[in-house]
């Protein structure tokens, strides 16, 4: 499946995630992965959005995102030009007779054992989405009984930063404490 990864800088305000998700829902675009977190600037959050490239006109998505009031910047991150990681916690059945083999698989993929019970292991893996998918394929033979993935996060490689150049307007409310959408009293 062909995917597109968008790095979206947004104002760190309540309701921004709802507006962005609503845009995707209104246009019937599916989000494969969504991760949101703060940046080095407390007024700005970064959304990493992965969408299916076959069914989603990426230029249209970018244009629509840029029209949202609280979106500051949208950049598409391309394959090898970006560092992409995802965290997964994987609970695997650990039959005592096969436990050592399971631990070898975990070691090859640099997955850490974060919990061990008499019948299961919980592994933690931080890796590229492709490597994580390979690990999951290997673990399927052992019996994966639970899985949670954080969603992909990504940054462009090289010296350039997404914050280089104009970011759009960070509302004056950040300086005054008032909401930008409210009239001044």
Explain what this protein looks like in three dimensions.
The chain is of the alpha+beta class and 185 residues long. It folds into 2 domains: 3-77, ACT domain (Alpha-Beta Plaits, 2-Layer Sandwich); 83-149, Alpha-Beta Plaits (2-Layer Sandwich), CATH 3.30.70. Helices cover 25% and strands 37% of the residues. It has helices at residues 16-26, 58-67, 99-108, 129-139, 173-176; strands at residues 3-11, 31-38, 44-52, 71-77, 82-93, 112-116, 120-127, 144-149, 153-156. The strands form 2 sheets. Strands 5, 6, 7, 8 and 9 form a 5-stranded antiparallel beta sheet that branches. A 4-stranded antiparallel beta sheet has the order 2-3-1-4, covered by helices on one side. It is elongated. The model is unreliable at 171-185 (pLDDT under 50).
Topology:
Blueprint: E1 3-11, H1 16-26, E2 31-38, E3 44-52, H2 58-67, E4 71-77, E5 82-93, H3 99-108, E6 112-116, E7 120-127, H4 129-139, E8 144-149, E9 153-156, H5 173-176
Antiparallel strand pairs: 1-3, 1-4, 2-3, 5-7, 5-8, 5-9, 6-7
Summarize the model shown.
This protein is an alpha+beta fold. Helix content is 25%, strand content 37%.
User: Would you tell me the overall average pLDDT?
Assistant: 87
CATH class of the largest domain: Alpha Beta
Query: Helix coverage percent of residues?
Result: 10-25%
CATH topology of the largest domain: Alpha-Beta Plaits
What's the count of strands? 9
Number of helices: 5
Low-confidence blocks of residues = 171-185
Structural class: alpha+beta
End-to-end distance: 52 Å
SSE string: EHEEHEEHEEHEEH
Shape: elongated
| Proportion of residues in extended strands | 35-45%
Strand count, sense and barrel status of the largest sheet are: 5 strands, antiparallel
- Rounded to an integer in angstroms, the radius of gyration calculated over CA atoms is 20 Å
